[in-house]
Amino acid sequence: MKYVILGASAAGINAAKTIRELDPNGEITIVSKDKAIYSRCMLHHVISQGRQPREINFAEENFFEKYNINWLAGQEVLGLNTEEKTVLLTGDLKISYDRLLIATGSSSFIPPIKNLAAAKQIFGLRNIEDAVAVNLAAENTGAAVVIGAGLIGMDAAYALADRGLEVTVIETAEHILPLQLDKTAAQKYEKLFRQNAVNFFFKETTVEIKLDQDNNVRGVVLQSGAFVHCGLVIVAAGVRSNIEFLKNTNVKIGRGIQVNSYQETSVPNIYAAGDVCESTETFTGQVSLTPIWPSAILQGRTAGSNMAAIPRQLEINFAFKNSMTFYGLHTISFGLTGQADSDSKELIYQDAGNYKKIIFKDGVIKGAILQGDISNSGLIGKLVQDKTKISHPEQIFNMTYANFFAQKENGEFCFACNDNCH
Amino acid sequence: MAVKQGRRILINKDLCQGCKNCQLACMAEHTGNKSVLLLDLENRANQARNFIEPGNDGKPVPILCRHCDDPACVTACMSGAMTKNPYTGEVSCDINKCAGCWMCVMSCPFGIIQPDRVNGTRAVKCDFCAGRHIPRCVEACPTGAITMEQR
Ligand SMILES: Cc1cc2nc3c(=O)[nH]c(=O)nc-3n(C[C@H](O)[C@H](O)[C@H](O)COP(=O)(O)OP(=O)(O)OC[C@H]3O[C@@H](n4cnc5c(N)ncnc54)[C@H](O)[C@@H]3O)c2cc1C
Ligand code: SF4
Ligand code: SF4
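^ inputs. structure came back:
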């Protein structure tokens, strides 16, 4: 059996490992544009210079030798022929497969802003090459602009400020991290960021990049007419699935590659996993992208198992969860965290170091923000994921696993009534 | 390469008296001198990796890392710090790799993992008393509520 995996990140690496565990003799090839294995979630540590590029490798030592996997690094996939069962790589190289996994992830979305394409110091933050280029540009300027105050934008802003740049964040919503936090939790962070030379423009968009005659970035112009001086811009305005090479194929695509719970695409023997695909998400029950690390891992393992002919369904595909930490303040959030609707009930706990909010609807937790003390937040996540009815919502902030304690035969914990336990 | 679960700490909550000896033992084991007698409870660096919490009936329940067969903390870890040893089944965190992102804290449904209390930059969890044959909590429990099973 010839397995080919496109992408050498969370989904691809975990799929390959799973295949090898189930099929000791199959031929496994991974193709990736990436020339190194690294966790994208730590790229900002390379910018803040907290870590060297080699220190963000997430895979086991000697991964490829250990699992006997052939890795074509630094190779771009340009096309796919589903009849011939081949993929086309740079330099007219063709490789054939019996089973194919597409785990090509996503790329930074670059919005149409005047002069953005021509500008020299404009970067996304998705690949190690981006982080290295940002570092070079940061040597030559004292000021940076970050477009977009989502998690990647705030990671970038934090890292740039940490290395001494004055940073301005431009966000269309009215506070940072609009998908992850409510206004109260966001403002706690904004205050800390401001104390560290990070400024914000909310309800604003960037309309133009100002360049000098050599296309060096000199600043950005906002919709209101305001001008922000800077020598480098990071664009963190969302991501798009890497699916260009599927253009002339019959692989079905929505916002990402459509897959079922076995990670199968619409074409036999072709699977997809991770940021590149869209699937039914557990919390909403809707088909959507699931662009977080644990989803990529679980989908990769599921795909790998099915490719090795051991049927496995993705049972939990919960992507509405976030963790973050800035300036020593930790936050974990789940579900829908913004304005609760009229038939929901909000419970809030607040003291000097903590802000906790839980949104209930029909006795089930629909959203949670835990800022400050984040211990036991995993329990809340489990209750959100399982849509567990909470009989005493008012006690939610004191609940621990002791309130749900149940054991399996083998001594593992489980949740009474939800899992198979005795 | 099926994972073998070598040892597991078993819990019989009905025997737990809530004396928290196991917590003291855990804290002591993770200090330099390992002594309960010298343990400074005011020092925030002394952090237990096991918990005794009241259940619905108000009686104490020991909550200890299960070193799960399919650990949610390992799946969530984006740095490669959190791993399950395929031979012993133990789930441990390499603090030199840990990035303090709290994906694991967010994912352990039992609330076992916590940020370290001093710097808040590294994950703290049960390490099965690395190197010790019988974990300190098991040794310290006077009632038999926490025992170790060897498979
Ligand atoms: C700065 C940053 C911080 C993040 N922080 C978090 C976090 O804290 N928690 C969290 O859950 N998630 C976080 N994420 C998201 C997380 O990184 C992704 O969900 C995860 O990496 C998805 O893994 P993947 O394997 O699907 O794809 P990717 O990691 O995107 O990998 C795609 C792979 O495909 C290869 N590839 C792409 N196109 C081609 C092609 N045409 N030919 C050949 N190879 C190709 C790439 O080289 C790469 O190897 C963060 C992301 C970033 C950028
Ligand atoms: S920390 Fe939690 S998820 Fe991880 S092994 Fe222990 S009990 Fe399981
Ligand atoms: S806090 Fe450390 S151990 Fe936990 S998921 Fe992040 S990197 Fe892994």
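Chain A has a mean pLDDT of 96. Helices of chain A lie at 10-22, 43-47, 63-66, 128-139, 151-162, 183-194, 293-307, 377-386.
thumbs up if we can close this ticket
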